[in-house]
Structures are given as structure tokens and as C-alpha cells.
DNA sequence: CTTCAAATAAACAGAC
DNA sequence: GGTCTGTTTATTTGAA
């Protein structure tokens, strides 16, 4: 994917500027799974006029991505060979969370062009892949370190044993020496990690490596968790005593906790380290509390009713002893366990988020009913005063307010240059058949806004072609603005701001944008004081999209008939009931940021939080007033062609004068449309 | 195989 | 005259 754009870049970038050009897999690029890119005129250099070949940061990033891609390809190769090899006995693969279709994995990846990869893998998948690869490297590193540490640990243990019988002082010196050794080891490892990180191959950021969780509002998760969870990995300065105390010599938190409650097994831990499912470095960390329980005689948090409560295990164990044994053999520290652990983490985080949401809702309800909540909102994030619109301003800034009004977790505060998140499991990843192909946004499941929200950083930084049609992108751009109108140039800017990909090949895509604006009836040009602006005629936009509702009939009904906020809430609830995730941002409720930041795994689409938001969203003061949507009418000085024609026959919702066309439109157009997929 | 939607390329015109 | 904007046509491609 990235390479595709690379090749394009090379093609299109004004010759001299692109020093990096030489390095990319240009040969691959020609294969142009990019398909369309070949397009009509093919050979011609489309970007002759494109002087935007900014060199430095973008290209550097690009370079890094190239490297990563390379690695990823190798990895694919490994995967494939692994699959084909009969000896692939254990469950390593099974746990793999990188959802590469088997068929894909089977084909020899080395033959895959980047474009093909891009097509095969959705951005999230690819991202996951990359991370997996990174994890692999980390694994190897860690394996090495771990072995050494094991030895040290053993020695240390014996020392301690011996030390117990001696005065503490005697123990001191030798132990200190070991600790220092340990410390050195850790530092060494840190250096390696840092190196990797510098190469862009490893991200030490907890919130980055956490796979799909990335998309979760980390803030909603117990903020204290993360540091804890990840401490093993990222704590260079962690005092040696600490690790000694915990008897966990491993690099990872996993090891620390795991060892603590499975001490016996510690002696011979299975060292079979392999890639971690989500490409995450072995930083899987069971909850700390689990370790605390475990000393309790006669009980174990993972043991109950005579069976192992390890997720998906249920092995019967007669007594605790047997269970412990089972635990140590079956659930030792290997990648399957860590994978499972991680899944559990996700489950927990989901629940936490859910809890956060619900309590937030409760707060709002209580507030509404004038029942003073006992305490201030637990999750009152910096309620971003900046409306979703701010997004369209140049300052996307810290608050990271999203198009949808999403306020993304401040955890991403660290938001490094390339928080290439791997939404991996998110629904977003499921649909995209390949960026260069049919842009999925329109017809397929993911509403652009939510996918965009989820992968915002990804697209912003990765030179990856977004899997959306131009039309949907344009629409998104327009809808994100407070008054829902943009000049052509502003649209351009939005593109470049939102997508690294569109910082290149400007001639090409700008032409396409203009073409789309003109071509699609859903884009209405309006003469403004300052010139012309473009608006979106939602009705037209939805028209072109074959309704395809997979959701519950009730939901559909609700949404279709939804004319007011009440109805909206109904649908909201229906959706909630169905998916157990809040889907829409009910306007009455708190704040877009809070609700929609929920978006987590895959349930992003119902109602496309982002899409309706701009319309009825509580985020943007200017357009909030009930007749908000009428701006379109206002704006239009043109003999409301689009407006008039379509008003009469609304196939969906009954024209309800009382409710005002605004919500009506919003509901029937946004909702069905977006989630109908 | 056909149809359709989308992407791409390109020609052209009008406004600035 | 050059650029930007906007319209239109043609071609290619992939998916249904």
C-alpha cells in the first residue's frame, strides 16, 4: 500500500525533489494493483504540476514505511511457509490475531506487490501485520535476553535461598551484583528497543501496541492500568530491586506477573517465543490483581468449580494442586497464553469502557433530572470546547478532536508522529478490499466517519490510500465543517490534512475531486459572497447508495421513522440493545466526544456516529439550532434545485413539518444510509 | 458477458 | 498568459 503510493510519488514527484525515490520498490509499484492508477492515460506524469513534493518529514516517514512494509512482506512469507509446513504443530498460529486470510497467506507473499498487499490487507490489517513483525523481532530479542535473565534469575534464586539462612548483610553484595547485572541487561534491552523504535519498527508506546484497543478511548480505561500493564516493557529506569522483588526477571510485565503466580513453572518456562498475535511485543500483562489472589491457599482466581477458568479452557482439575500443575503446563508463558491474556484484556477494557459510558450516561440523566450526582463525572474529559468543526481548522491539536466530534484519548497525547494504529479487529478492517480498489466506504459496512475516526492517525501519517471514494471523502470533508460548506480549496486542504496519501499526486486527485464535485449530483455548488462553496445534498448522496441494511429491523424502522430526538434515542436504544454498544450520540446526552469515542471494536457503524453528528451533533454551536440543516437552504441562493426536487418524494421518512426537515433529513439519510451497509 | 460505479486522464471554458 | 475552478467526455478497472 504504502509502496504503491511510493511508486506514484516517484512517478509524480518533481524529479529532483525526491531523494528518497530511489529506495522504494518501484518495480513493484509498476504492477499497480493500484490498478486504477494506471488508468487511462497511464504513462503520463500526472503530477507535472504538482510542486508539493515536500521532502523531509513526509519522505522520511515514507521511507520508514517502506522498510516496515518490506519487513511485513518477509513476514508474510514466513507465515505462508509456516502454514504450509506440516510440522506447524502447536497453536502459535491459531492465536494469531493478524487476520490475514489464509488464502492470502498461502500465496507466496514474496510475489505480492505492495499494491497487492495493500489490496489484500486493509490498513488496519497491514498495520497489525507490521506490528506483528515488529513483535517478532522483539520476541527474538527478548528471547535472547530472557534466556540470559533466566540464568541470572536462577542464580539469584539460589542466592536468595542461601541468603535466607544468612544474615541479610551477607546476602547483600552478591545479590547486588546480580541486580546490577539485571539492570544492565535491562538497559541493554532498552537500547535495543530504542534502536528499533528509532527505526520505526517498534513502538514502545503502550497504546500503540495494544492492537485494536487503540481505537478505544484509553481514557475511559482505568488510566492507572496502562502504565502498570506496560511497565515491564517500557520501564528503563525500573529499579532492579523491583524486578527482583517480583521475582520476575523477564522483560515483560507478563513474565513478572505470570511468574509470580506460577512460580513453579518459572523454572522451566517454555521459551517458545513466537510472534504475538497482534504483533504486539510480549507485553501481555495479566491483571496485577490476579497475582495477588493467587497466594490465597485453596483458591485461585482462575480456578473454580473444579475447573480451570482460563478462557476457553475449562479443564477439570480435582484440586488446586492439580490445577496449578495444569496451569503451569497448559497456560505457561507462551504466545498462546499471552494472546489469550490479551484478549481478556480487551474484554476487560471493553467492559470498562462500557461502564464508563453507562455511568456517564447516568450522570447525564441524573443531571437532567436535577439529581445531583454525588461526585463529578468520573470521565469528564476535557470536554473539548472545540466542536467537531475544529477539525477542519488547521489546528488538529492536542485535543485531537475528530471529525465526528470524537475526542480521542489523551493517552495518545504521546501521539507520536506515526501512531499507526492497527485497528485490526475493528470492523473497519474487515471490509476494505483494498484501498486502490473499490473504495469501500460507500457501499460497504463501514461508514467513513467512523473508520476515519478510528484510523484517523493512521491515514494522516501513513502514506496509504484511504479506502474511500472521492465522493465520500468530499462529503465527509464538507460535513465536518460547521456550516457544511467548503470551497474547493478548502476541500483540497482537508484532503491533504487528513491523508498523507493526498499530500502527493496532487494533480491527480485534485482533478478527481473536481470531477467528482461536478459529476455527482449530491454535491451542490452554491454561490457565496466570497465565491462558490460546495455543499452536500444528503438525499442525493444517499440515493446513489443501494440500501443494504443488515441491522435489526427494529433499528431500521426506528431510524427510518425517526423524526425527533426521541425517536433517535429509540433507535439508539434499539441499537444499544442489540450491540451492547452505544452507537449514536444522542444529542440530549453529554457530548459527542464522550459518546462516540466509544466506537471501539467494530460496532462503530450503526448510525455512524460521526456522520449524523455534524448535523445534529451537539458539538458545533453554530449549526446546532434546530433549523441547522436549513443552512443548506440558506446557503443556496440557487433556485433550490436540489432541494425542491427531492423534497416532495421522500421515499423514506414521512415529511414531517413539525419536526422540521433538519432532523428528518439527518435521520433518514444518515442513519439508514450509513449503516445500511 | 454485461452492467455499473469509480478512478483516472484530459480537453475545454470561464473567471480572476 | 497562467492559474484556478468547473464541466464534460473517454477510458480503464473491478465488482456485482
TrEMBL record:
Comp. bias (Low complexity): 21-35
Biased composition (Basic and acidic residues): 286-297, 634-648
MF terms in GO: DNA-binding transcription repressor activity, RNA polymerase II-specific; RNA polymerase II cis-regulatory region sequence-specific DNA binding; zinc ion binding
Pfam families: Forkhead, FOXP-CC
DNA-binding residue intervals: 465-538
Start-end of Acidic residues biased regions: 665-677
Region annotation (Disordered) ranges: 1-56, 261-304, 405-443, 595-677
Biased composition (Pro residues): 649-658
Cellular localisation: Nucleus
Compositionally biased region (Polar residues): 1-17, 615-633
The entry's keywords: DNA-binding, Metal-binding, Nucleus, Repressor, Transcription, Transcription regulation, Zinc, Zinc-finger
Protein name according to UniProt: Forkhead box P4
All copies of domain Fork-head, residue ranges: 465-538
Main location as per UniProt: nucleus
InterPro entries, per the entry: FH_FOXP4, Fork_head_dom, FOXP, FOXP-CC, TF_fork_head_CS_2, WH-like_DNA-bd_sf, WH_DNA-bd_sf
A single Gene Ontology CC term: nucleus
